[in-house]
């Protein structure tokens, strides 16, 4: 399974508009998904989180900060909840989703 790449814009505007909170993604994911056996180690095996100095996504008039990317998909007005919603189907295998009742 290829690692999922999460990039969080840490430019000034994104950072003050909630991007700083997005850096807690790993902790929240492990807390919420722990009931399905997700540990920090398992999360780090499947997901790579990195800060992005500035994504320039704010130049797009129809998009609002904070910004994040999952693989190459831009997420505008990103929250931890919206990132977890996008991550879940990528993170868990079909078998895991079935056992979670998420299919």
Task: Explain how this protein is built.
The model has no long low-confidence stretch (mean pLDDT 93). This protein has one domain: Glutaredoxin (3-Layer(aba) Sandwich). With 103 residues, it is of the alpha+beta class. It has a 4-stranded mixed sheet with strand order 2-1-3-4. The protein has 5 helices and 4 strands, in the order E-H-H-H-E-E-E-H-H.
Per-chain topology:
Layout: E1 4-9, H1 12-22, H2 25-33, H3 40-46, E2 47-52, E3 68-70, E4 73-75, H4 80-91, H5 94-100
Parallel strand pairs: 1-2
Antiparallel strand pairs: 1-3, 3-4
CATH architectural arrangement: 3-Layer(aba) Sandwich
Number of domains: 1
Approximate strand percentage: 15-25%
Total beta strand runs:
4
Do you know the CATH topology?
Answer: Glutaredoxin
Q: Radius of gyration, rounded? A: 14 Å
CATH class, anyone?
A: Alpha Beta
C-alpha termini separation: 19 Å
Question: Which keywords apply here?
Answer:
45% helix, 103 residues, Glutaredoxin, 5 helices, four-stranded mixed beta sheet, alpha+beta
Give a short overview.
The protein is α+β, with helices and mostly antiparallel strands.
């Amino acid at each position: 399974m290829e690692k999922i790449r999460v990039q969080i814009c840490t430019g000034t505007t994104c950072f003050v508009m909630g991007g700083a909170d997005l850096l807690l993604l790993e902790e929240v994911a492990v807390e919420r998904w722990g009931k399905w056996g997700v540990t920090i180690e398992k999360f780090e095996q499947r997901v790579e989180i990195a800060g992005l100095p500035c994504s320039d996504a704010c130049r797009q008039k129809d998009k609002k900060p904070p910004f994040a990317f999952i693989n190459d998909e831009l997420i505008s007005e990103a929250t931890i909840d919206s990132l977890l919603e996008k991550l879940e189907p990528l993170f868990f295998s079909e078998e895991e989703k079935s056992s979670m009742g998420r299919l």
